[in-house]
Each structure stands twice: as structure tokens, then as C-alpha cells.
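The following record pairs a protein chain with its ligand, magnesium ion.
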Amino acid sequence: MAQSKEQRILEFVQENAVKGDPQSVVEHIDKYCSQKEWAMNVGDEKGLILDKVFKETNPTTVLELGTYCGYSAIRMARLLKKGSRLLTVEMQPEHAAVAKPMIEFAGVQDKVQILEGATETIIPSLKTKYEVDQVDFVFIDHFKNFYTSDTKLLEKCGLLKKGSVLLADNVVYPGAPDFLEYVRTSGHYDCTNYPSHVEYSDKLDAMEKAVFKGN
Ligand SMILES: O=c1[nH]cnc2c(O)c(F)c(-c3ccc(F)cc3)cc12
Ligand SMILES: [Mg+2]
């Protein structure tokens, strides 16, 4: 079986980054994907926005929708305070199969749990199967056409509390117009837009922060 791009990224990290050092893993994924092969990690420019919003939130329970190779999970886990945890949902088995060793190489496997499956089936099981009460921070970075339905599902399952922060990638490119419309007009969120660029490119993109106002 030929090696996938994601497997090549993992191999580059394992052969060049410092084991157990999440910052080194993040830097090496960015180095490979900016110099060798483009890949859909949130990247260094939008990663700095993620870091800033994450630090402001100082979350205890973090949910990520869309693991891919584990870049943003590692980026957030490196900032997680003691006793906190990050659950990341990945629908594609071949991506989860790369993210798992990537997260282990970074040394953050004790803080990060990869949940393989569809968000629409996993979100309703978070309280019962994964002992989640509510989530403080949600990074949304999976299929654009699931952003809105998954946001409504989080509300319906009682997983959001007053002040829970949603941060969504790619709201300009590839774009999530229905998500923007929903969070900006539903009356349940205070929204902030963070203009940026598509990772490793000069194409315009943006992230949207939506802070839940409570039921
Ligand atoms: O499918 C995606 N899931 C999550 N994040 C993405 C992303 O950050 C992208 F830039 C892109 C992207 C794909 C093709 C392009 F030409 C530009 C951006 C896609 C995704
Ligand atoms: Mg993205």
C-alpha cells in the first residue's frame, strides 16, 4: 500500500521533531506542510488565534470536531492546565490512525482522547459514555456542512453552558455561511470574527468565535 500524505507527515515528525515536545511537533508539521506538501492543519497563522482564544478561555473540558493529523489537538493540549482534558472526534479511520501516534509522539496522550466516529452519533454519547458534564471550549474544524447541525446538537444535548466558547475554522474558505448566519442571528451567541488566511497560503479565510449566552 502506498504511503499517504498524512503518513508522510507523521514520518517527518517522528524523524525530525523532539519526542515528547508538543511545540516541536507543531513546528515540524508546519515546516513539512508549508515546504513539502500542503495539508489542512489549522496552521501557524490561525494557530496563533487559536492559542489566544484558548488562553483567554482557560478551559477544563475541551472538545474538538475534526482531528485530522492531530495538529490542533496537540497545539491545544500543550496549553491545557493540569487535570484538564481534550476529546477530539475524527470520522475518518485513516486520519485517526495517524493522529494517534502523532499525539503519542508529542507526549500529550494522557490529556487527549481520540473518539473515532461521526460527530452526530458521538456528541449525544458524551455525557453518558465519556462522562462529560459540559464543555468549556469547542474547536470546530471538520466538514463545513456539519458545523450548524453539530452546534445545534451540542445545545440540545445540554453540553454548552453560559460562557462556553465555540471557535470555528474556515468560515470564509471553504466557508460555512449557514453556521455564520445561525450563530450571528440566533440570539444565543456573542460572535467575533478573526480574519486570517488559509493555512500555508495567501487565500483569505477567517475564524469565528461564538460565546454561548446560556439557555
Ligand atoms: O475539509 C476541511 N476540513 C477542515 N479544515 C479545512 C481547512 O482548514 C482547509 F483549509 C480546507 C481547504 C481545502 C481546499 C482548499 F483549496 C482550501 C482549503 C479544507 C478543510
Ligand atoms: Mg480547517
